[in-house]
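Students often ask why inverse folding is considered easier than folding. One informal answer: many sequences map to the same fold, so there is more than one right answer. In these notes we will look at a single instance of the problem. The structure comes first.
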C-alpha cells in the first residue's frame, strides 16, 4: 500500500482500499466518521501506448494520494474499490472498450451506495477517471438514486471544467466542484485522450504499464475544438477522427508533468472534500 504517487504506487487498484480491511475495521471507521471515496473508471482503448485500464489506474492512484492529504487535514477516508465497467460511447467502436448500458451502472451504484449508507458512512465522494459525458452523467444519476431518502451525503467530486461541460447547476447538492491550480503551460491544441497529460500521469504512477518505446513515433493529432466536437459524437465518428485511438500529443509526455498535474488535482480534491465535510 502506498500513499504516494511514486512509481511504486500500487499497481493493484485494490491497494489501499477497504478490500484490504476486515468488515469490523470498515464498520468501526464508518462509525467514527470516516468519509468514503469511490473512483469510476472504465476499460477502454488508450492508443498503442497505454493500457486499457488507464482510466481506472489513474483515479485509484489519485484517491490513495488524496486520502493522505485528507489525513493531514484531520479527515479519515476509506477508499471503496474502484468501479471499472463504465460507459463507453466515444471509444465504443474500438476493441477492448466494452459497451455497458448506463442503466446497469446506475443501478449497481445505487445498491452499493445504499449499502455504504447502511454501514454508517455519512459522506461519499465519487470521482471519475473517464471523460465520456455519458459515463459522467451516469455517475451523477447513480449518486442521485443511491442517496435518495438515505442519510448518506453522496456527491460527484468533479473539476469545474467537467461540471460546466455536463451542465450541472452551481448549487447542485450532488456535486462537489474542485479547481486544480494550473500545473503546466497552456497548449495550442486539444489534449483529451491518451495524449500528453494522461500519458504523463501514467508515467508518474504506473511507468511499467507505458509502452514508452512507441511514444516517439506517435504524431500529435493537433485538433481544434471542432475536431473535438466531431470526435465526441463517438463510435465510428471517433474511430474515423482518431484511428490510432489517442487525441493529443503522447510523445510530449513527461513524468514530471504527470506528478505536477496529479498533485495539483489531489490537493484541490482534498480541499474541496474538507470544505464540504466542514459545512454539511
Ligand atoms: Zn483515459
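Output (designed amino acids):
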Amino acid at each position: 500500500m502506498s500513499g504516494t504517487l511514486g512509481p511504486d504506487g500500487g499497481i493493484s487498484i485494490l491497494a489501499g482500499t477497504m478490500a484490504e480491511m476486515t468488515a469490523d475495521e470498515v464498520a468501526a471507521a464508518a462509525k467514527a466518521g470516516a468519509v468514503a471515496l469511490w473512483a469510476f473508471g472504465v476499460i477502454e482503448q488508450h492508443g498503442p501506448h497505454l493500457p486499457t485500464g488507464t482510466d481506472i489506474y489513474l483515479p485509484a492512484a489519485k484517491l490513495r494520494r488524496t486520502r493522505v492529504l485528507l489525513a493531514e487535514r484531520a479527515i479519515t477516508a476509506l477508499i471503496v474499490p474502484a468501479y471499472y465497467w463504465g460507459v463507453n460511447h466515444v471509444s465504443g467502436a474500438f476493441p477492448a472498450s466494452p459497451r455497458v448500458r448506463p442503466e446497469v451502472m446506475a443501478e449497481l451504484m445505487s445498491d452499493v451506495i445504499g449499502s455504504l449508507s447502511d454501514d454508517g458512512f455519512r459522506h461519499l465522494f465519487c470521482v471519475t477517471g473517464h471523460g465520456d459525458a455519458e459515463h459522467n452523467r451516469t455517475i451523477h444519476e447513480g449518486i442521485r438514486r443511491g442517496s435518495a431518502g438515505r442519510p448518506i451525503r453522496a456527491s460527484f467530486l468533479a473539476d469545474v471544467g467537467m461540471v460546466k461541460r455536463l451542465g450541472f447547476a452551481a448549487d447542485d447538492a450532488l456535486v462537489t466542484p474542485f479547481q486544480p491550480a494550473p500545473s503546466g503551460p497552456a497548449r495550442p491544441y486539444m489534449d483529451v485522450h491518451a495524449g500528453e497529460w494522461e500519458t504523463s500521469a501514467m508515467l508518474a504512477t504506473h511507468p511499467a504499464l507505458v509502452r514508452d518505446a512507441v511514444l516517439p513515433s506517435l504524431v500529435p493529432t493537433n485538433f481544434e475544438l471542432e475536431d473535438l466536437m466531431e470526435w465526441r459524437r463517438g463510435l465510428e465518428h471517433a474511430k474515423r477522427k482518431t484511428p490510432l485511438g489517442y487525441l493529443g500529443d503522447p510523445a510530449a509526455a513527461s513524468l514530471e508533468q504527470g506528478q505536477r498535474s496529479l498533485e495539483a488535482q489531489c490537493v484541490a480534491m482534498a480541499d474541496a472534500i474538507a470544505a464540504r465535510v466542514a459545512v454539511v
